[in-house]
């Protein structure tokens, strides 16, 4: 038996309401360019809208002009989507609360997750959306996932409940020392000011 190796998220498809409310939210609130529009090839009563969330991947929405927006929370039963998280940079993250407030969109306020900060709010259909901003930059040639893996190992070894900024910083040092060569034989911390 062999694994089926994935290479990343290809797209996520959501059931939307009408076409215009979908465009107004995904492009008009979240800034995702509306890049492709065609019928749902499996259901002639639906449209299929495509948006770029910022990384060239796709968020797609099935629309139907007879469906109306629902303002309750989408189901969180086992097997259901709890929330979708989208990355924003620090400059944008600092503006999110004000920009949500301008539209009267209730939100969670800023949540400090140690390795990132998050703000949660619901889309017009009740789907929980998270806007997340990492508290670290991965070393060149590395990824957020690689830093998180190393930080997790440090967290567990040190008996911490959650990943803290010290774990992230130490993980970055480990990754740089492992991936970038040096002429020095001893790369340990030094104090040249003594």
TrEMBL record:
Highest rank taxon of the organism: Bacteria
Q: Record's Gene3D superfamilies? A: 2,3-Dihydroxybiphenyl 1,2-Dioxygenase, domain 1
Q: What InterPro entries is this protein classified in? A: Extradiol_RC_dioxygenase, Glyas_Bleomycin-R_OHBP_Dase, Glyas_Fos-R_dOase_dom, VOC_core
Pfam families named among the record's database cross-references:
Glyoxalase
Can you give the residue ranges of the VOC domain? 8-134
PANTHER family, per database record: RING-CLEAVING DIOXYGENASE MHQA-RELATED, RING-CLEAVING DIOXYGENASE MHQE-RELATED
What is the protein's name according to its record?
VOC family protein
